[in-house]
Amino acid sequence: MTALSILYVVLFYAAIAVLIGGITNKVLQYKRVPAPLKIPVTPAPMTKGGVAWRLTMEIVLFNSLFRSSKWTWIFGWIFHVALLLAFFRHLRYVVSPDSFLWPIVSLQVVQSFGKYAGFAMVVGLIGLLGRRIFVDRVRYISSPSDYLMLLLIIGIAVSGLMMNYVVRTDIVQLKAFIMGLFLFDWQNLPSDFILLVHLTLVLILSFVFPISKLLHAPGLFFAPTRNQVDNPREVRHLSPWGAELEAKDGRNA
Amino acid sequence: MADFEIPETHEFPVIPTVMEGVMSHSAPFLAKEQFQAPLGFPGNGELIEGWKETFLEKLGEMLGKYRSLQVFMDICVKCGACTDKCHYFLGTGDAKNMPVARQDLLRKVYRRYFTFAGKHFPKLVGAVDLTEEIIDEMYSYYHQCSECRRCSVFCPYGIDTAEVTMAARDILAHVGKGQKYSNEIIGKVHKIGNNLGLPEPALADTLEGLEEEVEEDTGVKVRYPLDEKGADILLVTPSADFFAEPHVDGLIGYGKVFHAAGVSWTVSSKASEAANFGLFIGNYENMREISLRIREAAKELGVKRIIFGECGHAWRVAYSFLNTLAGPWDFLDPNYPVPQHILDFTSDCLDRGILNIDKSENDWMTLTFHDSCNVARASRIGSYPGSQFEIPRKVIKAVCNNFHDMAPETIHDSTFCCGGGGGLLTDDLIELRIKGALPRMEALKNVIEDKGVTHMAAICAICKSQFTKVLPYYGMTMDQIVSVHQLVSSAIILEGQGDEDEAEADTEEAA
Ligand code: HEM
Ligand code: SF4
Ligand code: SF4
Question: Taking the domain A3-252, which CATH number applies?
């Protein structure tokens, strides 16, 4: 194996560990910290099913964002849908042809939608970047990391598109490398420059995910303002530390 | 009138250009020791010794106690969707009054001391060291937020700046930077039972006065009882209802409705205050302490139900938190919601047809309705989501012939704060209050011009006081703000009231 391939094997394992470990750690923290009071933003659903629907609408359609800013919504939504489509397209690199998933992954729609999604993603990201640069309010609240995050993902999308349309890489060897990671049977990585750029940026994205605002993806499910049921009079809501206070002075008896 | 400019109103809202520091001089008076100590806070209006460690320790503690704070500190993507949603930004143009910028005052410290990125790459992620200047900035801008939650409605993740403001105020109070206005008032509630410091004899006097006034007006003896054991209903209402205009006309209205419905009720001198400023300062213990008075009063008086009068934040605490803080309420009648909103009660009476209403009494007015933020975005009134918008309008329309809503993007859950909520209803913040009222004033002016609206009804003591104060600055008059139950009061015809014809009609209907 080439030294380069060994380096990338190590980096990939590290990235997967950081990504999974980091997100798990954060999710466990969000679960552990109690929400002591009922604070759903009303009107809020009165049932758990209603809350599931509310969150689904937020995740699928970005409902609230649609109400607040049509431009951010259109660019943001395009970007995220494209991200999802691109994700599906990438499954063909990690799913073996014998897998029961293969017939779905290899579907023509998945593959061609995924291919064009790259362009949509860049359009969405450039729109978001433009908003950040040209709208004075958004510029004011932006830190360097906010620009870099967009540039990073633009870099991933553009390098990906280049492999599709400009300089193709050795897909067969790439798939062998990735499957090798899963089977602990390490293979060489094609050493094309664009591919290395693409993979390096993806590695960076994985490393920063659990320590950045990308936590919005898991965090969204834990926002008490959106995930609580509107039933404070019917069901008594009490946090462990609230219960401790009560137990101490017994005034709620 | 004032040494600053009153903002101009427009036909359509204008989003201001971002300006830096134009409101950095605005800060409420600090609480001296006499107002800090009774609430369990240290200091004398200055930073205490070891403030930095205490601040960070307290921040760490809050992050472990409030999921909202922990999650909100992490997940903001700086999308900017909330930036033009705050009435204080719209009214002042100050950059730090954009909700996300307000959160960032705390977030940049959180990042510096609690996150990997902020510890190692502070410049990259905008993390900063905690300094005295940062504390001063926090004190200023966390007192330019009325905790109205409008930003939360529009954030893709529901990030509620109010939660951040509350946490920040609590932390600031713990390093010696408490706010005089709220803390002084909470002290009075703990000691005397209400925000105004009205002792029992004064309260008894006031209520007696009301009975006389109503009897003079209507010829009917309507009771306004105090501390009456065995009454069915405990009415908990903001203390402004006992004397201030237009609040007191609302209280007169509740009494008339109770009278017409034939229920027994009482006010308690122990819990003679619906307001709970513990919410504003973000302090669970103080909020619980204030709530527990209601539990004690309900037990002592042996009531079966609890009804809250017209007040926004009080209703939020009542509806959303009372069960948590002062429950369980298993000793009350389970057939009624605990607590119930006075409008829910009145609306039910209207449905059952037991109120005799003469709408024409209110014909000289054309009404609009101001949704109070805490009712609109932090609670519910009736049995279904959104009933907090419909029930007040239904009641108003049942007692008035002329009603027009303001522009749709300024009502319901998009409602604009009056500008004086969240513990900011104090004269030391008058500039902020006037400027923050801009979006509401704009919407009101538009319906006045287009629809001939003459009065705005509200169901919150703070809104009513705030509007009474700021309406004149925008070229309107202070009596253009009215209580919803004031409208009910004028239209309701009690049995035995008025001339003979009406009395006859009454008996016929009753028969
Ligand atoms: C549960 C899944 C997710 C949901 C519901 C979601 C939702 C959102 C929303 C509503 C926004 C704000 C609007 C915008 O600026 O686009 C946003 C921003 C963003 N999201 Fe996601 N997202 C998800 C997953 C992800 C993932 C996996 C990534 C990883 C690359 C990502 C990257 C971003 C970035 C970089 C921004 C900021 C864009 C900017 O700077 O303006 N999101 N997301
Ligand atoms: S709308 Fe929410 S996520 Fe967007 S900048 Fe404001 S607080 Fe952050
Ligand atoms: S809660 Fe209200 S006052 Fe505070 S930042 Fe949000 S919109 Fe502004």
Answer: 1.20.950.20
